[in-house]
Amino acid sequence: MQADGVTPDAYAINAAINACERGGQWEEAEMLLQEMQALGLSPDRVTYNTAIAAAARAAQWEQSLRLLDAMRAGGEATAPDAWSYSAAMRACDKGGQPSAALRLFETMQQEGLAASVVTYNAVLRAAEWPVALSLLEEP
Fold first, then answer.
1. Torsion angle in degrees (nearest 10) through CA of 29, 33, 39, 44
2. What tens digit of pLDDT does each residue of 40-99 get?
3. CA-wise closest residue to 64 among 79, 44, 82, 50
4. Contact 81/113 with Cβ under 8 angstroms?
5. Is the separation of the CB atoms in 79 and 71 below 8 Å?
6. Domains and CATH numbers, the chain
7. CB of 100 within 8 A of CB of 65?
8. With contact defined as beta carbons under 8 Å apart, do 59 and 91 qualify?
């Protein structure tokens, strides 16, 4: 795009980050996020969620937590939603960090976000068996 004199907009960069996520290229997704900011474009919730999903696909749980923190720092427009937390929990699962996934689940609940089936699946996959059973039994 830039070679043709066209500056990418947020939509184009989000699409490129999505392609990186599907291709398992979390580092490229991170570079695109930084490029977006360098261009003076504001990442939105979609941008961050897709970058977290890219980190999750590559089991980069620490990166997913950093991205969640960046979302929180960005204010209301980038505040994490249930999808954000679910993707980060998947990263923790793939990275062998069950306690981090459970902390994310608890944080999400403390923030008043309703858990979805996707959220429960993510935390249940990551949880050690006694915790998973207790989550299933919650009213």
1. 130
2. 999 999 999 999 999 999 999 999 999 999 999 999 889 999 999 999 999 999 999 999
3. 50
4. yes
5. yes
6. 2-137 (1.25.40.10)
7. yes
8. yes
